[in-house]
């Protein structure tokens, strides 16, 4: 974890402990700088992070304010750390249905910018939140970045493993989604009916240097998934 | 439009004209500074804006790169300017079903942080993209900010009117959504069947000083709406 990320955590904790509400004014940059004994630029980066995540807002020349309490049980789509951190106070678990190496289809190859003969890790999981089915997930991993993957790793947070063990620097991601009807196979897996609604969700993750390393296709259970996005002008 | 927004537009145009592709390196800050005759901090703000919108990515110490072509026809949810700018090269039109002043329910009052006796503008519209139904929209406007609204205004981009005529400074928004089935009334409006899938989407817009001024509830047509989010770590 980088220093500014730690300071962002401290400030978030500080907001919680003092029960600050939406619209409440926070101490200024100088005061956080002294409180946590870090540089001014570290505080500024931490505040940018908190602003991006919808925790605070800053007004030019006027100060730093709390953005307010979010609805419980919604996943913040802009925190792309994997599910564990996206849903507060929830227990997330994974069931691995399949993990193998294969030569992917041309669509997958294109998304991950692979050569024709390159194989990928193919992973199929069911993800549960508090023991309810959240979604079915299929992922393709670029083996140049995801050097190794096995079932025990895939039964936990892969992103935690990538960052901490493989030292992958996760940069950004493209998310595409639309609403659709479930086919029979998907309905069976999600324990729903054919033609029930679902969210079809695709995400391509890139390293900080722009290399795509994970292309995932998710089908969300319409009764168990709720989403939140903190947007900015 | 602020100066950095203009520079962001110039740079985006520059990327287009030179047919830059994903991963291509762009000129550095200094060179954009000279090209557009603006300050370094204006270029930096413009680049931050383009990074937020998924157009470029920046790597520490290494440079500015193009993030690549997005799929066509997807709405970028992080550009909360109203629909016109979210869908590139599309014709957006609005049909106003109802516009009136009323005392809202307690839920709406809470979202907009209103007093008990405060009335709001209530607006119901159908939004079309290239003459296809995109969604049904219900909006409640805080009259302290949205001082005046009539049918001709509501038949166009309200956000354009708010920014340019009323000089409202739009700051940020909270987006909540989930997948559901259509009820009979909604199905009639969207020209679909009861129990067909839909995206239920709520958005609360705030001024730069944190005052909520628009609470909207949208129901998206599952066949005509596709969404894109450029996410960051």
Automatic annotation (TrEMBL), chains A, B:
Residues 1-69 form the HTH gntR-type domain. GO terms for biological process: negative regulation of DNA-templated transcription. InterPro entries: Bact_HTH_transcr_reg (IPR050679), Chorismate_lyase_/UTRA_dom_sf (IPR028978), Tscrpt_reg_HTH_GntR (IPR000524), UTRA (IPR011663), WH-like_DNA-bd_sf (IPR036388), WH_DNA-bd_sf (IPR036390). Pfam families: GntR, UTRA. One of its GO terms (molecular function) is DNA-binding transcription factor activity. SMART domains: HTH_GNTR, UTRA. Keywords: DNA-binding, Transcription, Transcription regulation. It comes from the Bacteria. This is GntR family transcriptional regulator. It comes from Staphylococcus kloosii.
């Amino acid at each position: 974890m980088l220093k500014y990320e730690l300071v962002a955590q401290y400030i978030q904790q500080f907001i919680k402990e003092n029960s600050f509400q939406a619209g409440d004014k926070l101490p200024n940059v100088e005061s956080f700088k002294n409180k946590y004994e870090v540089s001014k630029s570290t505080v500024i980066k931490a505040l940018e992070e908190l602003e991006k995540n919808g925790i605070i807002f800053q007004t030019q020349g006027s100060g730093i304010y709390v953005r307010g309490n979010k609805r419980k049980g919604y996943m913040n789509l802009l925190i792309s750390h994997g599910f564990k951190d996206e849903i507060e106070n929830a227990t997330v678990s994974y069931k691995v249905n399949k993990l193998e190496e294969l030569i992917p289809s041309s669509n997958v190859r294109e998304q991950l910018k692979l050569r024709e003969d390159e194989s990928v890790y193919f992973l199929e999981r069911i993800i549960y939140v508090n023991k309810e089915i959240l979604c079915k997930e299929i992922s393709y991993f670029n083996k140049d970045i995801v050097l190794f993957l096995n079932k025990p790793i895939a039964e936990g947070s892969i992103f935690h493993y990538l960052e901490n063990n493989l030292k992958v620097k996760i940069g950004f991601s493209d998310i595409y989604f639309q609403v659709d009807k479930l086919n029979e196979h998907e309905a069976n897996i999600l324990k729903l009916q054919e033609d029930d609604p679902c969210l079809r969700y695709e995400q391509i993750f890139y390293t900080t240097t722009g290399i795509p390393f994970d292309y995932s296709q998710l089908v969300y259970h319409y009764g168990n998934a709720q989403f939140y996005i903190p947007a900015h002008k």
